[in-house]
Specification:
The chain starts with a helix and ends in a 5-residue tail after the last helix. The chain contains twelve helices and eleven strands. The strands form three sheets. The protein has a five-stranded mixed sheet, sandwiched between helices. It has a four-stranded parallel sheet with strand order 8-6-10-11. The protein has a two-stranded antiparallel sheet with strand order 7-9. It is elongated and about 60 Å long. Helix 6 packs antiparallel against helix 7. With 270 residues, it is α/β, with parallel strands linked by helices.
Length: 270
């Protein structure tokens, strides 16, 4: 899941033979599902991925009752789609393979900052012939982010903790999320890294952003189970970050930003 937040690729693109308004859309993975389920009417969705209604899918409620398909060429083509949308589903050769079969593919770009998240949203909506909906959603995203007060001269620190015992430093969407909520990232090294136990033994963050994926507890060997981490989670405010908010770099990341910002502005209860 971590890679979903940090990868970066070209902006969304669609094959030139795509219909102006696709009416049989097939989504190949749950990141693509989010855009289809948010922007497209159910009558235009031929199928979503098998993960569309899983706990880590933000739009899971909207997926209930829709057909699903595995990202295998033979299974997808039998549905006669006029547009396939994907983030990573079907593997690296999926776009070329569907192009050879005459099926246009809308490729969703990844984003590693909130500005890029917004642009991917707008571009993907246009590729689905739902540009107006995408613009409305982007403006709402702007409004929500602008409403978060972050002017404090001394920002508190926050540490992002996953059940797998890793965190993320500068240069990715986790860092963007923390900064947008008014924090500085306790992890100063870029990229995904093991929780800094040695540093935590001497000092700690002002807040812990505790991620959850699939409602799974930490592995018994995970650094997240270390007594040092447990002590900090007991002594400091902890904000639960739903896996569905961060699993894909979408507009719903703002939900996590708002939850973190609310913890910063509210007095701590003991």
């Amino acid at each position: 899941m971590a890679t979903m937040l940090t990868a970066c690729a070209p902006q969304p693109s669609v094959a030139p033979n795509a219909p102006e308004r696709p009416m049989r859309i097939v989504s190949l993975d749950y990141c693509a599902d989010q855009y289809v389920l948010k922007l497209v009417g159910r009558d235009r969705i031929a199928a979503v991925s098998p993960d569309a209604d899983r706990d880590f899918s933000y739009m899971r409620a909207a997926a209930v009752g829709l057909p699903s398909v595995r990202p295998r060429a033979e299974d997808v083509l039998v549905l006669k789609p006029d547009l396939v949308i994907r983030s990573y589903g079907g593997g690296a050769d999926a776009a070329a393979m569907f192009a050879r079969a005459g099926v246009p593919v809308l490729q969703i770009g990844y984003a590693n900052d909130l500005t890029a998240v917004r642009q991917v949203l707008v571009d993907t909506a246009r590729g689905l012939d739902e540009g107006a909906k995408g613009e409305v959603l982007a403006v709402e995203m702007d409004r929500r982010l602008a409403a978060i007060p972050v002017s404090s001269p001394q920002r508190p620190s926050a540490l992002y903790v996953t059940p797998g015992g890793v965190t993320s430093g500068p240069g990715g969407l986790v860092d963007e999320m923390l900064r947008a909520a008014g924090y500085v990232n306790f992890e100063g090294e870029p990229g995904w890294r093991t929780l800094p136990l040695e540093r935590l033994a001497k000092e700690g963050p002002d807040l812990i952003a505790s991620a959850s994926f699939w409602n799974a507890p930490p592995d018994r060997w995970s650094a997240a189970r270390h007594p040092i981490v447990a002590r900090h989670m007991k002594d400091r405010p902890v904000v639960g970050i739903e896996g569905a908010w961060t699993a894909c770099g979408g507009w719903f990341l703002v939900d996590a930003v708002e939850a973190l910002a609310q913890a910063r502005t509210e007095p701590r209860r003991r």
